[in-house]
Design brief:
By secondary structure, the chain is mainly beta. The chain folds into two domains: 129 residues, Elongation Factor Tu (Ef-tu), domain 3 (Beta Barrel); 131 residues, Sandwich (Jelly Rolls), CATH 2.60.120. The longest helix is centred in the N-terminal third of the chain and has 15 residues. It is built from two helices and 22 strands.
């Protein structure tokens, strides 16, 4: 490690991107082969041991945060001051305007369709070799899942973002943007990866409106030329910018992995609706 020297084309090496495609390799920081990306995070097991009995009772498990340790190196800089400036520029990418670690979106070159939401967590000692150096960048994804880089309603042909490198789109039925609804109807939403709780963005009018899927229903009261934002993950509902969660009949609205039939019912319907979620993976 102490003799590290990068030789090659940054465009062809494996790297990671931070926040909107800033590749570390293009920035002058190179990802080394001994970087750690665990297949799964540490489990947090819920068990109970009863004295006088063999084994234990298992009440299920959850995952802890995912630790992503990026082993990095940078080549000889013109001066020691240039080497220090490169490190400070990297710091700027990881810290907010108050100098505190901020959440960044981390994308590996070999999986360009997925991102982790991670934060710097730990010390970053730099092993300086003349005007070059190596270091381990410790990042923690408090939410251990990886997510699709785009929302399901953004999957459209001709997109400037979606490319044929996006493996998760093979066989994925995107929603293609906002859905115009003027009468009761049903449509299929495909979820790739694990179950998700979607967001609904609605604008327009309805005397009554029900959204149903997988045995769960969201019932909205009458509204006229108004906007709604309903977040099933965080249990929030906003009507024209005002929190009105208590006004809704709201349950555990889940879209399962695979195909889901979503039914829209009600009267006097004239709305545009977006169903927003990122596919999630472990």
């Amino acid at each position: 490690m102490s003799n590290y020297t990068f030789i090659g084309d940054p465009l062809s090496e494996s790297s990671v991107s931070i926040n909107n495609g800033i590749r570390l390799a293009d920035f002058g920081v190179h990802l080394l082969a001994d970087s750690e990306e665990p297949a799964l995070p540490q489990t947090r097991d819920k068990t109970l041991v009863i004295p006088g009995r063999h084994g234990e009772y298992n009440f299920g498990s959850y995952f802890d945060a995912r630790q992503l340790n990026l082993s990095c190196g940078f080549n000889n800089q013109a001066t020691l001051a240039d080497a220090q400036q490169l490190i400070r520029e990297l710091n700027t990418m990881l810290l907010d305007e108050y100098g505190r670690p901020k959440e960044v979106e981390l994308v590996y070159d070999y999986e360009p369709d997925k991102l982790y939401k991670a934060t710097l967590s730990g010390v970053v000692p730099v092993n300086r070799i003349s005007r070059a150096g190596t270091f381990v960048l410790p990042l923690k994804a408090s939410d251990p899942f990886a997510y699709s880089r785009i929302y399901a309603d953004e999957i459209v042909w001709g997109s400037d973002v979606v490319t044929f490198e996006y493996n998760y789109l093979l066989g994925h039925d995107g929603l293609g943007g906002a859905i115009d609804i003027t009468s009761p109807k049903a449509f299929i939403i495909t979820v790739d990866g694990y179950n998700v709780k979607p967001k609904f963005e609605i604008e327009g009018s309805a005397t009554s409106l029900n959204i149903s899927a997988n045995g769960n229903t969201i019932a909205l009261p009458p509204f006229n030329n108004e906007t709604w934002k309903i977040d099933c993950e965080n249990y929030t509902a906003v009507r024209n910018g005002v929190n009105v969660f208590g006004d809704l009949s709201f349950g555990e609205f889940v879209l399962y992995s695979g195909e889901n039939q979503v039914s829209i019912g009600g009267n006097g319907i004239n709305i545009k609706m977006r169903v927003k979620f990122r596919d999630k993976y472990m």
